């Protein structure tokens, strides 16, 4: 299983990863995908393959490139077609669910301001672009939005179990009712 946590800086992804890891019934590993250096597909799959075979929690993965890429370099390295390809590969092999961490803007910006010297984003304008990017990004993997100011991890875990697709029986990638 693969649980992917996405969202803007200071939205609670790393804290959520640790909390979900403590609630896992099986051994569970946390991986972190930072900025991509060359090939998004290769780096994403390599990162996921280093995780735990039972359950891996990804603190960021490919979706962040769709949002951060345009902010940092004017375009993302993935593009629409490759975004779908990565989603299909993940759906066929890793039974993924995706959590978009989106507490209120005031919460995210307040936490970012307190830690801005340790963050990659240069200013609140970039952070706001990233925040809006995650609100509007196209999602091909079963996804829930999570606001830690209104929902606890028990509620989130129940929601994740309800959207996680059954194991892929093939042929093809993914599962649709």
Question: Which secondary structure elements does this structure contain, and how are they paired or packed?
Answer:
Elements: E1 2-6, H1 13-23, E2 29-32, H2 40-49, E3 56-59, H3 63-73, H4 79-93, E4 96-101, H5 105-115, H6 124-136, E5 143-146, H7 153-163
Parallel strand pairs: 1-3, 1-4, 2-3, 4-5
Helix pairs in contact: 3-6, 5-6
**Main beta sheet:** 5 strands, parallel
Number of strands: 5
Physical arrangement of strands within the biggest beta sheet: 2-3-1-4-5
The N- and C-terminal alpha carbons lie at a distance of: 20 Å
Number of separate helices: 7
Structural class: alpha/beta
* Shape designation: globular
The average pLDDT value, as a whole number, equals: 87
**In which range does the helix fraction lie?**
40-55%
Uncertain segments of ≥5 residues (pLDDT<50)? none
**SSE run:** EHEHEHHEHHEH
How much of the polypeptide forms β-strand, as a percent range? Answer: 5-15%
- Rg, Cα atoms, Å: 16 Å
Question: What is shown here, in short?
Answer:
This protein is an alpha/beta fold and 177 residues long.
Main traits of this protein?
177 residues; alpha/beta; five-stranded parallel sheet; 7 helices; 46% helix; globular
Please describe what this structure looks like.
By secondary structure, the chain is α/β, with parallel strands linked by helices. 46% of the residues lie in helices and 13% in strands. It has helices at residues 13-23, 40-49, 63-73, 79-93, 105-115, 124-136, 153-163; strands at 2-6, 29-32, 56-59, 96-101, 143-146. The chain has a 5-stranded parallel beta sheet with strand order 2-3-1-4-5, covered by helices on one side. Helix 3 (63-73) packs antiparallel against helix 6 (124-136). The longest helix is centred in the middle third of the chain and has 15 residues, at 79-93. The model has no long low-confidence stretch (mean pLDDT 87).
